[in-house]
């Protein structure tokens, strides 16, 4: 495995080429890829649950040609050498075992990241870039609403795993069907976890309707926090409902479009 080195900006970005140790299906539609090697230790200052950039090399490549920062802008390597860049979530980091875990939704061959995960084999390389910053993934609150589709399962799982035992609230998770439900370890027994099914991700989602069915506690008496991440249309509706109809303020809400139906990440203008 060859490492192309670190890209340094403010805050420092750790960028390393890691190799696949193993992969397995958590469910039929979600693949966990475990990356490993000594270079995983360079990610000791990142925050689990935060997003990264992955660099997918062209098939057969043994090194990754990273963009370089020159004269105030990023310059990508020429055509065939250019890696495909996508955004994923750091699902878990085990520094003792020198392992980094990422989870990929399987949505066929049309997406380079999905296709890469489906075909990944031990020894294959992947570039990973992350901010070297320890930060709170979510604020302390009395009540939580977590709402997302399968692409948000990694971050929702990290949040649920780290909530304290007395945390209260609701998690709404949309997956294609019952086979995609998974066990999530949480001490927070007062978090109600609801699985919704949508066999056609990106269309016909019920996530925004389910969010409307949740009754939020009063903001005067509760510190509330809402994390929503899913396909762009659902997020637009959820954000509009919470901000405009319920007057939830920005400090209580993190809402992110994780992908856009019909558009690849490099073509979509995801907020
Ligand atoms: C902060 C952040 C964190 C994310 N974390 C994760 C994560 O941990 N795991 C994860 O799987 N995804 C995650 N995503 C979403 C992921 O980046 C997108 O799904 C991405 O488009 C996948 O890239 P691709 O190369 O497979 O497909 P693209 O080349 O981007 O898209 C090709 C086609 O596939 C469609 N498509 C893209 N994603 C999906 C999908 N999930 N289901 C059905 N169709 C799809 C597109 O609309 C397009 O038509 C995250 C996104 C963000 C912004």
Task: Write a concise synopsis of the structure shown.
With 271 residues, the protein is α/β, with parallel strands linked by helices. It has helices at residues 112-119, 153-162, 207-213, 232-245; strands spanning 13-27, 30-36, 51-56, 68-70, 73-75, 84-89, 92-94, 99-105, 125-131, 143-148, 168-175, 190-197, 224-231, 253-259. Strand 4 and strand 5 (73-75) form a beta hairpin.
What does the model show?
Strands 6-3-9-1-2-8-7 form a 7-stranded antiparallel β-sheet. It has helices spanning 112-119, 153-162, 207-213, 232-245, and strands at 13-27, 30-36, 51-56, 68-70, 73-75, 84-89, 92-94, 99-105, 125-131, 143-148, 168-175, 190-197, 224-231, 253-259. It has 2 domains: 13-131, Translation factors (Elongation Factor Tu (Ef-tu), domain 3); 143-259, Rossmann fold, CATH 3.40.50.80. The protein contains 4 helices and 14 strands. Helix 3 packs parallel to helix 4 (232-245). The two termini are 35 Å apart. The longest helix is centred in the last third of the chain and has 14 residues, at 232-245. The chain is an alpha/beta fold and 271 residues long. Residues 51, 86-89, 103-105, 107, 110-114, 151, 154, 201-202, 256, 258-265, 270 line the site of flavin-adenine dinucleotide (FAD).
């Amino acid at each position: 495995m060859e490492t192309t080195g670190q890209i340094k900006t403010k805050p420092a970005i750790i960028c390393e080429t890691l190799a696949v140790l193993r992969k397995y299906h958590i469910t039929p539609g979600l693949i966990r890829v475990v990356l490993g090697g000594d270079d995983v230790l360079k990610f000791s200052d990142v925050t689990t649950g935060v997003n990264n950039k992955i660099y997918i090399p062209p098939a057969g490549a043994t090194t990754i040609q990273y963009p370089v920062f020159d004269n105030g802008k990023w310059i990508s390597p020429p055509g065939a050498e250019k890696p495909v860049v996508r955004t994923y979530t750091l699902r878990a980091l085990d520094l003792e075992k020198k392992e980094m875990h990422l989870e990929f939704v399987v949505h066929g061959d049309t997406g380079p990241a999905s296709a890469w995960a489906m075909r990944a084999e031990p020894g294959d390389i992947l570039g990973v870039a992350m901010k070297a910053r320890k930060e709170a993934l979510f604020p302390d609150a009395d009540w939580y609403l977590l709402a997302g589709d399968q692409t948000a399962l990694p971050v929702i799982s990290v949040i649920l795993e780290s909530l304290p035992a007395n945390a209260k609230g609701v998690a709404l998770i949309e997956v294609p069907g019952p086979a995609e439900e998974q066990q999530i370890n949480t001490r927070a027994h007062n978090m109600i976890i609801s699985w919704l099914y949508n066999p056609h991700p990106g269309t016909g989602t019920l996530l925004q309707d389910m969010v409307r069915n949740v009754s939020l506690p009063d903001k005067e008496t509760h510190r509330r926090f809402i994390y929503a991440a899913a396909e762009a249309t659902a997020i637009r509706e959820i954000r509009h409902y919470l901000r405009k109809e319920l007057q939830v303020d920005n400090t209580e809400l993190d809402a992110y479009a994780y992908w856009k139906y019909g558009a690849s990440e490099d073509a979509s203008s995801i907020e």
